[in-house]
Amino acid sequence: MKNVTKLVAISLLASTLLLISYSCKKTIEQPASTETTTETTATPEVATPAPEPAKLTDPEIASIAVTANQIDVDYAEIALKKSTNKAVTDFAKTMAKDHKAVIDQAVALAKKLNVTPQDNSTTQSLLKGATDVKAKFETKSAADFDKAYVDNEVEYHKAVISVVENDLIPSATNPELKALLESALPLFKEHLAHAQMVQKSLK
User: Fold this and answer.
1) Which residues are within 8 A (CB) of 84 and not within 5 positions of it... i.e. 6 or more apart?
2) Domain residues of the chain, as ranges?
3) Across the chain, what does the average pLDDT equal?
4) Which of 16, 58, 82, 153 has its CB surrounded by the most CB atoms within 10 Å?
């Protein structure tokens, strides 16, 4: 159970990094306190307001979208190799098919707009988190793997939905890119509902 919890936490960390990486490192500058001979109390320190978060560019959004979808394709391919549970393998097939379709749409749109997806710290963080999750998957088998995979899918889709809804869509400036993200949202929500249904069946 501890291993499953760690696995889910790693996936959540990877997806949460989508939110964290969007902003520049914020620093709070505090003036040095001044000492006087006439006052016995220290001058209160006033924090300088943090800068506004750096807005994602469309090439960065495209890179994040492709990477996040590819990660779930990779998870599905592992499930199809390791699982013998029909509910799990059917779910994995759906994940592989649907997320590949989203990747194809994103790549086609990028070519149409003559935009090259731009690698960034978020995509790198996602890839590192996925490497750790896949390593955990490889240590599990049978029912333990099924539960770990499906639990991870539930949390991964929750995080991805939140980021697409609250960060990627508002940040996208190209209408076609924004429309693609908006069209993917209902699909991701269907995936979450499907994952939760399979999760219940495994309990």
Assistant:
1) 142
2) 2-14+54-202
3) 81
4) 153
Residue 134, pLDDT > 90, answer yes
CB 201 within 8 A of CB 147: no
Q: Which amino acid is at 193?
A: A
DSSP for 132-163? HHHHHHHT--HHHHHHHHHHHHHHHHHHHHHH
Residue 91 near residue 128, CB atoms below 8 Å:
no
pTM of the model: 0.74
Banded model confidence at residue 180, pLDDT cuts 50, 70, 90: very high
Rounded to the nearest 5 degrees, what angle is found at the Cα of 127, between the Cα atoms of 195 and 143? 35
Distance from C-alpha of 198 to C-alpha of 88, rounded to nearest angstrom = 7
What CATH number labels 2-14+54-202?
A: 1.20.1260.10
Tell me the C-alpha distance between 97 and 102, whole Å.
9
Q: Name the region of 142 (left: φ>0; alpha: ψ -120 to 50; beta: rest).
A: left
At which residue do the structure tokens 């249904």 appear?
Answer: 197
In contact, 68 and 126? CB cutoff 8 Å: yes
Residues with Cβ within 8 Å of 117's Cβ and at least 6 positions away in sequence, in order, are 59, 60, 62, 63, 66, 106, 110
Cα–Cα distance, 68 to 65 (Å, whole number): 5
Q: Report the pLDDT averaged over residues 178-194.
A: 96
